[in-house]
Design a protein that fits this description.
The structure is a single chain. The protein has a single domain, classed as Arginase, Chain A, CATH 3.40.800.10. 35% of the residues lie in helices and 11% in strands. It is built from 11 helices and 8 strands. It has an 8-stranded parallel sheet with strand order 2-1-3-8-7-4-5-6, with helices on both faces. Helix 3 packs across helix 10 and helix 9 runs parallel beside helix 10. The structure holds manganese (II) ion (MN).
Length: 437
Amino acid sequence: MQFFVVSLLFLLALLRLSRASFYDNPVLELPPVGGTPLEELERKWGTDFGFTGITTYAHLPHTRCLTHPETLYDIILLGIPFDTSVSYRPGARFGPRAIRAASSRQTSFRGFNHRAGLNPYTSWPSILDCGDVPVTPFDNALALRQMSEAYLELLSRRPLSYDESADWVHPRIVALGGDHSIALPALRALNKVYGGAVAVLHFDAHLDTWHPGKYPSAWFDSPGSQSDLTHGSMFWIASQEGLILNDTSVHAGLRTRLSGDDFADYDDDTRQGFLRIETDDIDTLGTQGIIDLILTTMGTETPVYLSVDIDVLDPGIAPGTGTPEPGGWTMRELIRILRGVEGLNIVGADVVEVSPGFDDRGEGTALAGAQVAYEMITSIVKGGLVKRGLWVESEHTRPGTEKLGLKGLKDKVKSVVADVEEQAQKVITPSKGKDEL
Ligand SMILES: [Mn+2]
């Protein structure tokens, strides 16, 4: 009997030991965790892998905000699946769900943006995915009314982190298009809430400031009709309505063909007050030159609507879009420029024209769209920290990667070259001449 008890105890001890760690390595032991049963459930099952869960943008919590005014927020993702004013390939109505799916590998526990030095999802604001505005595909006049009303409704709500001294009196909406004409209802709502025109920073291969009559048509005889609204005319309409500041707005990444035999489209665009940065300018100015040009034109105080048409990228990178134009920027260049202008006062943003039916099988275009939204959210969150005086640059810089400046960079290159030469010298200098062997 005694032997039996001792054996049992020994067995139990063995079992206990064998449970200690999968790797039998005490360092990997997790500390004991206390808490309520609810906390225990959350601890066990509360996180997702990239591929699990109901699809929201970056696994953010979802509320159908339009019908739940009691849910407060600071920044929201809002799908606007409207695509019935495109001039070529339709399909951007599926953009929001494609961007959400492509954002799956973004999670709050691995959301640290190393380029910006912060994790937007664990920082100060409440960020929600508010789902889509249910827009009619049958009637563009009605759709425009629906989009304008929805945008205004959500923008008018008091933000959760309301703070007048930090200029945080309205929430920020990052809209997922949809075709580019969704920028018109956004601008109408922003003008109402901010009490005046805003500047537009517009990344696009195309101008989108075209007069509706620039599409030659014998049928164009009634200005102000529903057919005026296209994804190439919405900024013209917005300019006519006085929604866009006409001395501080910028196009970036232009490479569209122009109407007719001359630069008349550019002249029209100039009258609407846009500075034009063409795709090719990156070769002469570099990304930093483009960043400087944008910041000099727009400043850091002017309220800015940041609008990114995914066709600003090269169609080799982002083929899933309505009106592709060869010869565009790379995603790396776009990220660099977006990060460079993070100091702008962004009051609203969109990423549009992702049309997943034309995307590659690796969902490259949707991935680019998801990344653009992530960079936008990062900039808005960071801007909020700066406005609150909570951003200390040195605390957010990875040790060893402080900005070197041009001289520092040259010195670093020189020292690397010297090292390589020294190593090479060792390799190619034989200890004995061939003849001596
Ligand atoms: Mn566009």
